[in-house]
């Protein structure tokens, strides 16, 4: 009896009633595991060492994470305006992003509700202080000095552009986009360097001086965005990598050592083909002159633009070749990356192949097996079972399936017209044959959407993407910036800072595009800002677009490149065709739906048989890729107490509560009896 009481008391002492879980958590002295079931629900790292856990629920917390409930509020220097409150899960719909390290999470968060400011618990516990007297010539905001950031900031230094490590300086005013190694932050503002034969001091600048648009120098080729030491009189610009250049370098990719030439001279790099005048190294035995950074170019890499491994060579037989990324000529007298497959003539510039938007920075070992590399891209789809098959000659088709993203069996429809405006629940486009559907629900999947691979490499993003279902949660496509429901491909790479997710319409695109609006092929470009020829809007410099391979002055942004080629209009029994040239009489420049004037320079939808013309937005609606009759999270609309339903008004179109215009097509509707009103999406900002 006494023993039982003693054991019960001891057990109670080893238990913790934690605010994040409904069962008591038992203290575990040591638990070393590698499966995801033993991941800490607080910091989302694997459990190793003392912890608390509920074995029935597979819920575990590091001891240090569990004991944070003793500090439910935090006065933090990263956010001195308000106290931060510890929450056991995201205060938002889905995952959240840390305002320090920028990584997403679904674990514990220190949160400021008025400011929507959030910190991972590991980031909240970092020791930091304001850096005194940092030169404003290099950065205008105050910086925090962090002695040990525990690898929480997985970014590149804004000075030398190399990965952060050790003590760092960090700017919160720039939303986590400016950080410096301690060594780079404490560099002298002026130096004397042997490259400047006139003995002028070189001044440290936060970015290089502006060059001419067609400049082909090395810094322009690599799009250098870090610090430089500059002499404006002598036109000398040294990167921090140049500043720290050793006299000799040895590298496993070359059998001889490289020697630094300490005098400035113009040259063409034998490894990349770009010009340069600083930090060049020579191999006198091989008669090679190269940039410092080109010495460490990997021999073999895998990029998003090609399905084979490509290899570096510093000379190929002289031939006329176009780079398959930028579609400009490759000078094969100098280095390039090419495909070794016998039936493949793929070739690209070195700087195109190693661009951060195209390559993930990983090299492929010399003894790689091409077959195993290809197998990485062969992934199965989310069809979990084939219930019934049908044979058509030598072709076998699954006519009834089970799919992971729907509870009921789905039947295949081969042909027939869809007149009810049904949407594919994968890509949100209008449903068309062949498609799978559920007899119990209004659930449709195009056959190609049902067969999408679980994992996919794609030219839009350098990491492997995983197919997920948004489950009616609103998301913004990272490619075309459109609001979407349905399936999407997400990057789950823990070190990726872009939070990339792409809708199915965009994922079906490739790195080249044939579009009826232009006579030549188009090619994909990253981080490109220009006016789109369709909508005439200028894209942000970090966005993607398609350009003409023949260098016509023609650009398509992703939103316009993915416009459907046909659309439907309630007063027309024919499909309307996307039309790019308006040569009609000026008196016909009106939309037959809204009856407002059309700009003849804008694309529109047209039926030649019925002579109907519609604005693109009138033909498609404000929310063409959201699920009709789905509810939007009411947290999107802080000034309204009820959720809104997405409706498609065809005949009885109610007026918008705010602008008074009728709500043709998609609109938001509050169906609560005390409200019962409709509002255009573009007018709903009054409620957000």
From TrEMBL:
Q: Which UniProt keywords apply?
A: Metal-binding, Repeat, Zinc, Zinc-finger
Q: What are the protein's GO molecular function terms? A: zinc ion binding
- This protein's record includes keyword Repeat: yes
Task: Give the matching PROSITE patterns.
Answer: ZF_DAG_PE_2
Phorbol-ester/DAG-type domain: residues covered: 402-457
InterPro entries under this entry? C1-like_sf, DC1, PKC_DAG/PE, Vacuole_Formation_Reg, Znf_PHD
In the UniProt record, does the keyword Lyase occur?
Answer: no
This one is known as Phorbol-ester/DAG-type domain-containing protein
